[in-house]
Amino acid sequence: MASANVKLKRREAHSAYQKMRTEYRAGLAEKPIEIKPEDFADVATNLLKGPNLKTGLKVYIPKWDTLPPPNVPETIEVLFDRGNGRFDVVASHEFVVPAAGSDFPEAFPYVMLINASDLPQDATRVMKSILR
User: Fold this and answer.
1) Most exposed: 1, 6, 70, 126, by fewest CB within 10 Å?
2) Beta bridge partner(s), residue 95
3) Which segment of 2-6, 59-63, 109-113, 128-132 scores lowest on mean pLDDT?
4) pTM of the prediction?
């Protein structure tokens, strides 16, 4: 009888862990990217100013609501569709809450740079960020 009780407790613990992990992973998804208004030639069409992009494009990642436990890394990837329908990673950063901490050491919104060589010439493209 004791072994059935032990098995039940293991299943309950496993179920509780899976529920917690599912709820946490549900928060991991596409995240907003902010671009400063002065970098737009036309905000309505999302057309960026070419001269402002000579040294790359700064994008700003706002802090997300659900933080990971300490020492569990999360990576933000900025992806760019260069017109082929496939999103390529053009910038990434790993965030980790320190062991004794409760927050990331980085300041938010976190600035990421997309190199000028990763930006399209004379084209409309789609950009997004993913939290992994």
Assistant:
1) 1
2) 74
3) 128-132
4) 0.65
Q: Would you state the structure tokens that stand for residue 32, as one six-digit string?
A: 């907003």
Per-residue pLDDT tens over the stretch 42-76: 777 777 777 778 888 888 988 888 888 899 898 88
Give the DSSP letter of residue 11.
H
Q: Which residues contact 126 (CB under 8 A, 6 or more apart)?
A: 80, 81, 87
Q: Domain-by-domain residue ranges, the chain? A: 30-131
CB 46 within 8 A of CB 40: yes
The CA R_g of the chain, rounded to the nearest whole Å, is 20
* 66 three-state secondary structure: coil
For the record, the structure tokens of 20 come out as 């917690």
Beta strands in 1-132 (DSSP E): 30-31, 40-42, 47-48, 57-61, 74-81, 87-95, 110-114, 126-131
